[in-house]
């Protein structure tokens, strides 16, 4: 476990951040400013190692699949995503 190993370095999603794990800033190169992993920096594309979560369906979603995706993208789902420490859809 990274948290309990002195000097350990790991990579995980922002939603897995805890008080015991330091989230470090990163740079694109030596001349660039360091950027913190937070929702604002991911949204404005200044944090260089973020990635979107992609959800694929084999066809255009209908029925309960569409209902579920609509819920995820709606206010209730996005609120939960934000509470969990992830970046909501903009």
Description:
- The chain has 90 residues and is mainly alpha-helical.
- It has two domains: 1-51, no CATH class; 53-90, no CATH class.
- The protein has three helices and no strands.
- The longest helix is centred in the last third of the chain and has 11 residues, at 63-73.
- The two termini are 33 Å apart.
Write the layout of secondary structure elements.
Blueprint: H1 39-43, H2 63-73, H3 75-83
The gist of it:
The protein is an all-alpha fold and 90 residues long.
Q: Into how many domains do the coordinates divide?
A: 2
Helix content: 25-40%
How does the helix and strand content classify structurally?
mainly alpha
If you average the pLDDT, what whole number results? 89
Radius of gyration of CA atoms, rounded to a whole number: 17 Å
**Which oligomeric form is depicted?**
single chain
Element-by-element helix/strand order = HHH
What is the overall silhouette? elongated
| Number of E strands | 0
What portion of residues belong to β-strands?
under 5%
Low-confidence regions: none
Largest sheet: none
Separation of the first and last Cα atoms: 33 Å
In DSSP terms, counting alpha (H) and pi (I) runs of 4 or more, how many helices?
Answer: 3
């Amino acid at each position: 476990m990274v948290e309990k190993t002195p000097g350990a370095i790991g990579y995980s999603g922002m939603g897995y951040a805890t008080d015991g794990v330091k989230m470090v800033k990163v740079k694109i190169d030596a001349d660039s400013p360091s950027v913190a992993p937070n929702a604002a920096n991911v949204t404005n594309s200044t944090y260089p190692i973020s990635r979107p979560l992609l959800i694929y369906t084999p066809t255009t979603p209908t029925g309960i699949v569409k209902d579920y995706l609509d819920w995820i993208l709606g206010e209730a789902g996005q609120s939960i995503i934000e509470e969990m420490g992830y970046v909501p859809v903009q």
